[in-house]
Automatic annotation (TrEMBL):
CDD domains cross-referenced by the UniProt entry: HTH_XRE
GO cellular component assignments: cytosol
Domain HTH cro/C1-type: 11-65
Name listed for the protein in its UniProt record: HTH cro/C1-type domain-containing protein
SMART domains, sorted: HTH_XRE
Species, as recorded: Hyphomonas pacifica
Keyword Transmembrane helix belongs to the record: no
UniProt cross-references to Pfam families, sorted A to Z: HTH_3
């Protein structure tokens, strides 16, 4: 698996497990939401600065974004669609 695909998969896996929307993560990490979506799909090659901000918002060590893919996890279910309240 390419590194950027692996990083994107881990960002999505961690974000969903913590119940954080793409919109909230993007806002808090100071990146565009569409960029974050592309990052999760492995379409973007993020800088270390972006990865550091994303890891900080997700409250995980940066190394967790590089964890090997676990085929047992399989596809990651998404969060329910729709905007989340700003109080979340």
């Amino acid at each position: 698996m390419e590194a950027r695909v692996l990083v994107g998969w881990n960002v999505r896996r961690i974000r969903v497990s913590k119940g954080v929307s793409q919109e909230r993560l993007a806002f808090d990490a100071n990146v565009d939401r569409s960029y974050l979506g592309g990052l999760e799909r492995g379409e973007h090659n993020p800088t270390v600065d972006v990865l550091e901000r994303v890891a900080k918002v997700l409250d995980v060590p940066l190394r967790d974004l590089f964890t090997d893919y676990d085929p047992e996890v399989g596809d990651i279910e998404g969060l329910p669609p729709g905007r989340k309240s700003s109080e979340a």
